[in-house]
Design goal:
By secondary structure, the chain is an alpha+beta fold. The chain has seven helices and 14 strands.
Length: about 270
């Protein structure tokens, strides 16, 4: 209910990778923020329920003002209540197509009064004190463990970890010498395609020995629920694809290389 949501703050991580589908009206929490998904879409918030649609493109329902397809406004106070899945589906469709309405009451909302009520509430004061005590203790435990972990690492071990990351493993698997690769790039014999951001490899659009033209999609990366398309700016033959679909890459990491004598470069497109 509204009182619960006002007095308690739930903080939790978002899913990574994100879901490819989240239903319209889903209620989720990511970090310290709660949201209602206005339409079906990918999503990473952890879901705790589902509500009625809050977006109505054609403002069919009278709860939506004409020309304003969004239901919620700043400082709206929302109350949720539990219903069965069957009830929700029935209410959802009726509300979406203007056959039912929700109760909306006009009132004045004062942020200062809202906070003042909690600042003088003895229960809230005690809960806050206990929360901060646990928070400080948890922070100290986490920092101690982190310092302990890094204190046991030496430079040799850290270098070994770097050499065994996914990029380096892929290069070793394909018997590629990084120095030779850079020399070929410097001589203009090949073009190296690198990730321009930290992301997941969503799709590899080409394969070894495939001819590519200017503007061809070669790799699609995914980050923050958006696809980043890497296109070729030249003609050539794909020499070797280094990465695989589902692999995580860091900015600057090698994705593939192409035999070409054309100018180097890539185009990044957000779709």
């Amino acid at each position: 209910n509204a009182e619960y949501m006002g007095r308690h703050r739930i903080v939790n991580p978002k899913f990574n990778p994100a879901r490819t589908f989240t239903p319209e009206g889903a209620v989720g929490i990511g970090g310290a923020f709660m949201c209602i998904y206005p339409m079906s879409s990918p999503g990473g918030y952890q879901l705790l329920g589902r509500s009625l649609p809050i977006w109505n493109k054609f403002c069919i329902n009278s709860n939506f003002e004409q020309g304003k397809p969004w239901l919620l406004r700043h400082f709206d106070q929302i109350k949720f209540y539990e219903v069965s899945e069957t009830e929700l589906e029935d209410m959802f469709n009726k509300f979406k197509f203007g056959m039912s309405n929700i109760k909306i009451e006009e009132t004045n909302f004062s942020v200062s009064d809202y906070y003042r009520n909690y600042e003088i509430d003895p229960i809230v004061i005690e809960e806050t004190r206990e929360f901060k005590k646990r928070q400080n203790l948890a922070t100290k435990i986490e920092l101690d463990k982190e310092n302990q972990y890094w204190g046991t690492k030496d430079k040799t071990e850290l270098i070994s970890q770097h050499e065994n990351n996914e990029e380096q493993q892929s290069l070793k698997k394909n018997q590629i010498n990084l120095a030779d690769l850079y020399q070929q790039e410097s001589d203009g014999k090949i073009h190296i395609i690198r990730a321009d951001m930290s992301a997941n490899v969503w799709k590899v659009c080409v394969q070894n020995n495939q001819k590519v033209e200017i503007g061809d999609r070669i790799i699609i990366l995914e980050a923050m629920k958006m696809e980043h398309v890497i296109k070729s700016t030249h003609q050539g033959i794909v020499n070797l694809v280094i990465v695989t679909e589902g692999q995580k890459v860091m900015a600057g990491e090698i994705l593939l290389n192409i035999n070409t004598t054309a100018p180097t470069g890539i185009i990044s497109e957000v779709v």
